[in-house]
Amino acid sequence: MVVLTDKTKKKLTIQKLDIAPETTTIRSLDWDRDRFDIEFGLQNGTTYNSFLIRGEKIALVDTSHEKFRQLYLDTLKGLINPTDIDYLIISHTEPDHSGLVKDMLQLAPDITVVGSKIAIQFLENLVHQPFERRIVKNGDRLDLGNGHELEFVMAPNLHWPDTIFTYDYKTQILFTCDAFGLHYCTDDTFDEDLSAISPDYKFYYECLMAPNARSVMSALKRMGALGKIDTIATGHGPILRHNVEELTGRYRQWSQSKAKAETTVGIFYVSEYGYSNNLLQAMVGGVAKTDVAVEIVDLREDIDLQELREIVSRCAGIIISTPPTSNEDMQTAISTILGSVNEKQAVGVCESGGGDDEPIDLLLGKFRNLGLKQAFPAIKIKETPTENTYKLCEEAGTDLGQWVTRDKSIKQMKSLGADLDKALGRISGGLYIITAKKGDVKSAMLASWVSQASFKPLGISIAVAKDRAIESLMQVGDKFVLNILEEGNYQGLMKHFLKRFAPGADRFANVKTQSAENGSPILNDALAYVECEVVSRMDTGDHWVVYSNVYAGKVSKPDSLTAIHHRKVGNHY
Ligand code: FEO
Hints:
Layout: E1 2-4, E2 11-20, E3 23-30, E4 35-36, E5 40-41, E6 46-54, E7 58-61, H1 69-79, E8 87-89, H2 95-98, H3 101-107, E9 112-115, H4 117-127, E10 132-135, E11 141-143, E12 149-154, E13 164-168, E14 173-177, H5 194-209, H6 213-224, E15 231-234, H7 244-259, E16 264-269, H8 275-288, E17 293-298, H9 305-314, E18 317-322, H10 328-340, E19 346-352, H11 359-369, E20 373-374, E21 379-381, H12 387-404, H13 406-413, H14 418-424, E22 429-430, E23 432-438, E24 441-447, E25 450-454, E26 459-465, E27 479-484, H15 491-498, E28 513-515, E29 521-523, E30 528-539, E31 543-555, E32 564-565
Parallel strand pairs: 7-8, 8-9, 9-10, 14-15, 16-17, 16-18, 18-19, 19-20, 19-21
Antiparallel strand pairs: 1-2, 2-3, 3-6, 4-5, 6-7, 11-12, 12-13, 13-14, 22-32, 23-24, 23-27, 25-26, 26-31, 27-30, 28-29, 30-31
């Protein structure tokens, strides 16, 4: 059955299929979803996958997005009487998987909800009604009978702190929710076509998993202690059956290189349901853009204070992200952190949900008194975050990452041989300002590594350093403007956009602009502009080379020339 919802006219379909003995998937196919979080543009829609396991007892693993309410529940009821389901296993409480938990509790009030301690806490906020629960820890088992013995694997931060995997010993299926998934919607239930899914698999990893590379490594290690994994039943995209070894191997390879970065930033936070997790992930993503490993520590979890001391002392930077209130355990954890820091470290603090008399200011003062460098202004989030709030958190994370790697960056600049350095420096480019708007977020960057790259179709390439704020707005499918600066008349704009902006700062304050067709700002004082759409990105180490098609443009001063950027050396811009 296909449903076109009134509001969106988007195509939603449902698929059900037996994938192993007594195991059925219900896949909600969201064909036209084009966005997930701010920077996550989707080219191929997505799916939300749910699973029914029928031993002597019956378990449902995850549900669906609320937009599938009728379709999903009708399909489920076609398979089973909901009151016959004994357990509802919650891998992760984000609404794309847990959007119908409340409905399930209404249909089957006696069902036992199974999840991590944090997931159960989050669910209380989500459903606002009493429910039977079973909190599981790593290695706990649940025997459904008829061979379906389940084992739970803690997989925090993949993609929220609440995440668990579930392994069924009978079918050798590992249910992983977000991990190993991809946003890719087709009627193919499985991963037969590896080359078709590979680009989206990588992009999904880069957006959601790469910033949490150390957590990925921990989860892979725990997976290794299970039996053979025949199938990975993901929460998004095709179920992995034909390429399990290859695709888990890619996670290992990609994460190994990121996790072994010599510099580490620790993010110490208190998990809360909803946006605080997304704020955390924005911050983690911002730090990870600087090629720094991130260690994420949930202060709400039972934490070993000696381990906490060790983590703090090996970090070059510390971020504390908490709600304004805290219990005794948290105070002890914070005191332990304060007792373990040193003056070579950088610190940043974030508080969500507080009032005006912020305890976080006191905390920041204590870190500064201990000699730590404050990497970004204290972030105080008093209202529901907007896209700009998430961008602010990402940029704050990047600022801290850049600060803790500044010595390494300077050293790398000096490491070229003198002759090569001077020869490379003779490569010149023009001077440009890239401007972009995505949702409500705007950004800009001075660029000189720009070149026309094709005639048919018309295309350009731009090299963008991975830690640039605008990088998130230049994903495949995103639109932007390339403003071309004028010879003899570029100093003002160059000086303005070369400034170091505070996280979340408006790059366009006091700059004359008009809006391009694609919504990005055009700089009135530029010589010319072209409107572009990103087609592909190539990873070149510390930069992305972004190839884009050009579809509109205009010259405002036909007799002027483009400003040229001459360099003496090739080891920096
Ligand atoms: Fe697919 Fe993090 O939810």
